[in-house]
Amino acid sequence: MKEVFLKLNKKKPEIQETVAQRKEKILKNVIKHYLNYGEPVASKFLVMRCNFNVSSATIRNDFRELTEEGYLYKCHLSSGRLPTNKALKYFINEILKNREILEYWTNLWEEQLQNLKAEAISDFLDEIADKSHSLVFYYDPQNDILEKHGLKYIFSRLVNDYKKEKLIIEVAEAIDHLDKRLENLRIEKEPLILIGKDNPFIPNDDFSALITKSIKNQNIYGLLGFKSMPYDKHLGLLNALSELI
What we know:
The structure is a single chain. About 55% of the residues lie in helices and about 15% in strands. By secondary structure, it is an alpha+beta fold. The strands form 2 sheets. It has a 5-stranded antiparallel sheet with strand order 4-3-7-6-5. Strands 1-2 form a two-stranded antiparallel ribbon. Helix 2 (about 20-35) packs across helix 4, helix 3 (about 45-50) packs across helix 4 (about 55-70) and helix 6 packs across helix 11.
């Protein structure tokens, strides 16, 4: 009996993390850091802050493989890595598969939208832009109406981060012609997610667009901003907009 008791209380051996699992964990941590801070991630940061039980050299080797596979690229200003458009698409697909995350953000946004005291669509979108800290647009193709709010959230970051007059002018002109781009837009699958160069609205790889249609009237709602946006939060917002308006 004593022998049986000892066997039952013996600790189970820890399951060894595979290389593929570690690489996936590394990739997700790099992406999350980029979305939160817009910065590259170094191997030492992952070891110290993200509880990786391997050496920096091992992570650098994983960095190299993930780079060869097209998920990461090296920032010229440091030894850190940034996620590619391919990596962001992978991460967004993981969010779309996770119904709990989407439902959480959708329910949260629905509650906030229902509490907004805005009489006109213009005031309504203005409040949404402030709550989401992003450029929000609404397009009614039947009546050729375009509303866009939150331009300050793009231009303030352009001035602070880029300090490039030419790029600011290009972005301003692109947003000014947003209606022409939307006229030719085809939404075959919702939400329509356009990352970097796939985004036809701003001719620069640093921007993304998320677009959906209203269930009631087929009008278009979208968010336009930098690639380092909180995709889970914004996809929840689009869900709420399409269902409520």
